[in-house]
Recover the amino acids of this structure.
């Protein structure tokens, strides 16, 4: 008798540990498995029971509900007020296209047997039968692009590193998931860590690297714990170490824990931090692909990018790129947060609209008030009004609409939001998190806060709005990295799409 209770930190935060303990103590003969979350966060803790007819779900469950669930014979899918039916038939889940998140919520995250039973290691074993060039060609042909925000083709980056001549090369997974409203990296590591390890191992074989690092933020203690255990298990299995699955390839993997700096999500600042230095952005060139970690050629990819690689190798490039639109191929893991009724993970092919995500999957606002704005792409992403909700969520369409897809985070705001205050937050956030290396970012963000304050106070509003736009132009063109270069995006989008919030009047609306 298997009963699944998520060990994901979001589920734990709303009582999943108490639910698991109550089931273990009251349901005789039950094996409680701490799986990853399915991503329907408003239903957590979501308990699943395995029956002859598949898994059935109940949620959100509290420890106090266990007695009534037992009385309703929930272990045999008995009816209860918290019944959600067959898990795979829950509409919110059934209509998704899960590729990267295919195993998350299905398996015990630390069971290699579970992992292999659900398609794990197929991609790696195939990679071991191919040449370096063939692996890179497969990844390139799939159209896989960086899921961290930049959208750079993964295969091209790998080819550059593979072609570099060096005695040592590195693979770095950027898991410093600092954007507001994003949590996909954490959920994947907590729910299916072997997928990331497999993707990194394939990348290492492709480019000739023997050492990998996962730069994982300190704010994710459960993810750190689970990933470290997964690395130990992979070593014991003969997957990691001097002979990857009995081959001539060697690959070692370590975790480096970040110290809470947002700018260390930028690839070169991350490298500095891994090396034990202050997290400051490096000037480019040279590119990290040629002179990266400790001055050696380095592949730097986001967690979702690397975790998509096993599916590309297992199913082939054609299968992966059969989804999506234009140059945005495959699937994107969207993360719904903010004032939203049904927050969580939505994995769909590129091309779904903003409206389909925030209303179709999100169900509108939690407050019940109309959605006034959504911010896409983290704290430096653009604010979109309701009349732009038909915009396609793909890299090119988002850029054309004056925004960016970023890491796929979507934060929802209802009609009570003050966009001038949100624009101020962007500049204040930049001032706080700037590494301080370049003047446009360090000083520009501080001046930006002051200028927006004057606009809000009604001081020379038109003059200061013009000054603010000039300042945004300088920051965009003159900043060393995306920290200062993208800060103007939320500011300008708020001014353009919500001009009524920048009049300087006390009661603007």
């Amino acid at each position: 008798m298997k009963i699944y209770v998520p060990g994901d930190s979001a589920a734990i935060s709303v009582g999943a540990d108490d639910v698991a303990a109550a089931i273990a103590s009251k349901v005789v003969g039950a094996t409680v498995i701490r799986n990853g979350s399915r991503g329907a966060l408003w239903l957590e803790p979501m308990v699943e029971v395995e029956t002859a007819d598949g898994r059935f779900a109940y949620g959100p469950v509290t420890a106090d509900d266990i007695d009534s669930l037992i009385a309703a014979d929930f272990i045999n899918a008995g009816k209860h007020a918290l019944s959600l039916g067959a898990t795979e038939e829950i509409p919110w889940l059934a209509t998704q296209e899960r590729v990267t998140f295919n195993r998350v919520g299905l398996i015990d995250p630390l069971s290699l047997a579970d992992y292999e039973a659900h398609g794990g290691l197929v991609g790696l074993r195939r990679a071991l039968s191919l040449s370096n060039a063939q692996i890179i060609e497969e990844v390139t042909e799939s159209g896989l692009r960086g899921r961290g925000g930049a959208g750079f083709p993964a295969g091209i980056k790998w080819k550059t590193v593979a072609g570099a001549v060096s005695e040592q090369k590195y693979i770095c997974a950027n898991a410093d998931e600092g954007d507001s409203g994003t949590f996909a990296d954490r959920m994947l590591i907590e729910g299916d860590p072997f997928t990331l390890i497999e993707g990194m191992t394939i990348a290492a074989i492709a480019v000739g690297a023997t050492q990998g690092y996962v730069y994982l933020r300190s704010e994710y203690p459960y993810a750190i714990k689970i990933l470290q255990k997964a690395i130990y298990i992979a070593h014991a299995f003969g997957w990691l170490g001097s002979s990857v699955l009995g081959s001539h390839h060697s690959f070692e993997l370590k975790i480096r824990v970040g110290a809470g700096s947002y700018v260390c999500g930028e690839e070169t600042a991350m490298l500095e931090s891994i090396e034990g230095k202050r997290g400051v952005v490096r000037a480019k060139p040279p590119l990290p692909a040629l002179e990266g970690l400790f001055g050696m050629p380095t592949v730097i990819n986001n967690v979702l990018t690397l975790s998509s690689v096993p599916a590309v190798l297992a199913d082939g490039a054609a299968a992966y790129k059969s989804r999506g639109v234009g140059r945005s191929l495959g699937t994107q893991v969207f993360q719904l947060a903010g004032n939203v009724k049904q927050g969580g993970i939505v994995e769909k092919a590129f091309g779904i609209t903003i409206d389909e995500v925030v209303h179709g999957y999100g169900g509108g606002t939690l407050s019940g008030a109309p959605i006034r704005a959504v911010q896409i792409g983290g704290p430096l992403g653009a604010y979109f009004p309701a009349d732009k909700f038909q915009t396609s969520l793909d890299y090119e369409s988002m850029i054309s609409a004056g925004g960016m897809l970023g890491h796929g985070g979507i934060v929802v705001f209802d009609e009570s939001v003050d966009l001038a205050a949100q624009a101020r937050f962007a500049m204040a956030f930049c001032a706080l998190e700037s590494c301080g290396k370049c003047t446009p970012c360090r000083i520009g963000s501080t001046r930006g806060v002051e200028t927006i304050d004057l606009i809000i106070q009604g001081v020379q509003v038109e003059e200061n709005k013009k000054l603010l736009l000039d300042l945004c132009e300088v920051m965009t063109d003159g900043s060393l990295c995306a920290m200062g270069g993208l800060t103007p995006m939320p500011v300008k989008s708020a001014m353009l799409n919500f001009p009524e919030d920048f009049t300087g009047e006390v009661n603007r609306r």
Q: What stands out?
A: The chain has four domains: 2-94, 112-321, 324-414, 419-502.
